Amino acid sequence: MLIRRTPNIRSSEVTDKATYLNRREFIRAAAAATAVVSGSLAGEPLVHAQQPAPHRRKLDNIRKSPFSTTEQPNSWQQITTYNNFYEFGVNYTDASKYAKSLRPEPWSIAMEGELARPAVWHLEDVLKGKVLEERIYRHRCVEAWSMVIPWVGFPLRDLLTQLQPTSRARFVEFTTLNDPVQMPGLRSPALRWPYVEGLRLDEAMHPLAILAVGLYDEVLPNQDGAPIRLVVPWKYGFKSIKSIVKIRLVEQQPVNSWQRIAPQEYGFYANVNPKVDHPRWSQSKEVRLPGFFRNRPTELFNGYADQVASLYAAMDLKRNF
Fold first, then answer.
1. Sign of CA dihedral 271, 96, 37, 291
2. How many whole angstroms separate alpha carbon 123 and alpha carbon 103?
3. Helix (H, G, I), strand (E, B), or coil: what is residue 165?
4. Would you list the domain boundaries of the chain?
């Protein structure tokens, strides 16, 4: 094939700027929608699409929750092939590729700190006889894309009530498994390991905050935070810590992992707020996967303002981001 080089022709003469920018936005968003990019909004290189997580055993004792949205959930494939889980790599498809090495059974969770009843609980004991709820929640990633996910779990406050927090307990600190053998991403210096997150105690006790152990009606897939993860739907996704091994009640506000590495970009609260932009991109609009464009207006508190706004009534949400 003959290729004729014409170095003196400007790119604007071949494709006008508006068409060029629209084309770039279409390609970027379409790639995100089909989960074939490692980071659609960051402009990272193309990779092969990953296979969805294999289906695992069904969960029993599930009831529908009145807290669910009526929006259509994303598919199993979309949810299990496109997500952040830095313990397996920094790209959106890395978890679906490498999380097979995680061993979610047996699993223990240490309950520590300002508690009347500290303990180490085995997950099977936590779930024994428990009625689980399917909660279809909106999920909003800080990188400005969103999904609707049918989690299966139970209110975090149910667990905390059993532990009996002391009068000094004001915050809840969560810690993820820190095992480089099971989690190859831990060998990179992307973050300071282990991954740590935190909530104010009243946030943790809110009925919308849940511990998820399943997706649809099945045991939680490895890449989505098996075997137990936090889900806080009015906050950006990085607050919903995965593969939890420790829950600690403390008096002082914990420093979460992203806040530690980039405090100017990631605050402690991380409430979804269209009026508070990330320093490197706008948060006013989002891509609802598997849509194509970032043209969906972002809702304050991810659409859960009626339920949670009272938690922050006296706060400056721009300062406390």
1. negative
2. 13
3. strand
4. 16-312
- pLDDT, averaged in runs of 10, over the chain (321 residues): 40 34 40 39 41 87 96 96 95 95 97 96 92 98 97 97 97 98 95 97 98 97 98 98 98 97 96 96 96 94 98 95 95
Question: pTM for this one?
Answer: 0.85
16-312 CATH choice from 1.10.3430.10, 3.90.420.10, 2.60.40.1730, 3.30.360.20: 3.90.420.10
Neighbours of 264 (CB within 10 A): 9
DSSP 184-213: GGGGS-SSPSSPEEEEEHHHHTSTT-EEEE
**Token output for 250:** 């403390």
Beta strands in the chain (DSSP E): 62-64, 108-113, 119-122, 132-140, 145-155, 171-176, 196-200, 210-215, 218-219, 229-231, 244-250, 285-288, 296-297
| Residue whose entry in the numeric block shows the structure tokens 């299990």 | 80
> Over the stretch 168-201, which tens digit does the pLDDT of each residue have?
999 999 999 999 999 999 999 999 999 999 999 9
